[in-house]
Amino acid sequence: MSIRVSSNQMVYGYQKQLNDANYRQTKLLEQGDGSKLHRPSDDSVDYSKYLRYTVSENENTQYQENVNTAISWMKTSDAALVNMTAIQTTFKEKTVAAANSTNNSDDMKAIGKEMMAEIQELVSLGNTMQGDSYVFGGQKDLTKPFSMSTEEVNRGLAKTLDENQSAYFSGNSGADDAGSLTQMLSLTGSDGNTYYLNTRDGYIYTKDFVENGYKNVVAQDSSAIVDPTRDAVGQLAGWGSTSPTEKVSKYFKNTGEIIDKTVELSGATATTGSSVPNIGSLTFKFDTVKQQIVTYQGDDKGVSMVKKNGTTEPVADTVNVTGPEIFGSDIFDDANSGNKVSGAAMLNQMLTVRAQVEGLDNEWLSKDGQTVADGVHATTVNTQTKLGARQQLYESVNTMLSNQNELITSDITNVSSTDVAKLAVQLMQEQTIYNLSLSLGGRILPQSLADYLR
Fold first, then answer.
1. Which ranges carry the Flagellin N-terminal domain (predicted)?
2. CATH no., domain 76-152+293-416
3. Mean pLDDT score, 91-118
């Protein structure tokens, strides 16, 4: 009986050792796929590091995808903006050419036709797509942003101030988003004369003073700014007060289309220095020009593509530019107008220029027309510059993410990969031990039941 117990113990001990050797060999063979970590029990410390590194790698991969998509989006946008600025440069040249009083009606009609083709191309570029998305539509990127009307409407005629005029008349009128007054509304008085209305304070100026008279004031004092009580001929009530009853939005849509062409303004109060003593008895009508209108169906919201973890940066992470950024705003849709931003202000001003060309208004083109053309080009160039700066930032981040990915990959390799040379030696050792165990067991363990009976 004692022999049998002893033999059983010996058999059990041998089997356990043999199984342990087989288990160690199997564990080593698992590492043949290149990884030494298949479960937390393999190495709890390294496995926890491996999990952290893997999370970092997944985040890095997602950020790289975001950045690459953003760069692609911005390159598409930039290419469209480059073409836009080139067209606007040509448009400026045509405006200068049209202002030449030697042009006959056929010349002006030809220039107007070329201008319309250029505006239509700008509208087409405004509808540039990246995949299924319109890159200039804001967050409404699945909606075609720009469209031009087929019919002509009556649009308000604005007096666009040049740099010197803007500097002078911005004095007491309140500043717009750009920090200066850039436009006034053109009016025709019941006396047949043209006047300009500052919609921010309701003051009315004669056409001659806005275009020429202010220069006499500046000649006497180079630092002079507008003094409405001295320079204006009158003031319309309800404009520019704390709680104004009169706003541009009461008379015009944000595209500049007049709501009621028959409306008349009256009740002007003469100012101290008025050169029109009977200003109070005059009525005024808004000047208009018949033209097509471009509308914008997108919004002014940014599309963000996060490029790194941490706090979100809506401005820095924005990869798109919108209609309002490309085509600015004007007197009909700026912050003071009471209207929402139209998103197509400069396009509609270009259509005004084109309408004035076909109307043979050389005087307007030589002053307002050229100022408008310059402003249109400058607005788009400014937007393109900002987009280019953001694109450079994303390209720098892309390089940084690539470098980080290499480091993370290296960390993962160091913590999880198999040391092939060491593994080969361990496998040979375990295989040798296993084979010796089999050989030894065959000699020591009882061969049959007869051995127990002896």
1. 6-132
2. 1.20.1330.10
3. 94
Quote the Cα angle for 97-100-102, to 5°: 125
Query: Are 323 and 146 a contacting pair, CB within 8 Å?
Result: yes
Residue 234 CA to residue 38 CA, distance in Å, equals 87
The DSSP code sequence of 284-323 is EEE-EEEE--EEE-S-SPPPB---SSSS--TTTTB----H
Structure tokens at 215: 């220069």
Closest CA relative to residue 337, chosen from 258, 252, 237: 252
With a threshold of 0.70, does the pTM exceed it? Answer: yes
Within 8 A by CB and 6+ apart from 245, the residues are 237, 238
Give the tens place of pLDDT for each residue, 167-193.
Answer: 999 875 444 444 589 999 999 999 999
Q: Where are the domains positioned within the chain?
A: 2-55+417-453, 76-152+293-416, 154-291
- Contact between 166 and 157 under an 8 Å Cβ cutoff? The reply is no
DSSP notation for 384-415: HHHHHHHHHHHHHHHHHHHHHHHHHHHHHHHH
Distance of alpha carbon 296 from alpha carbon 136, whole angstroms: 10
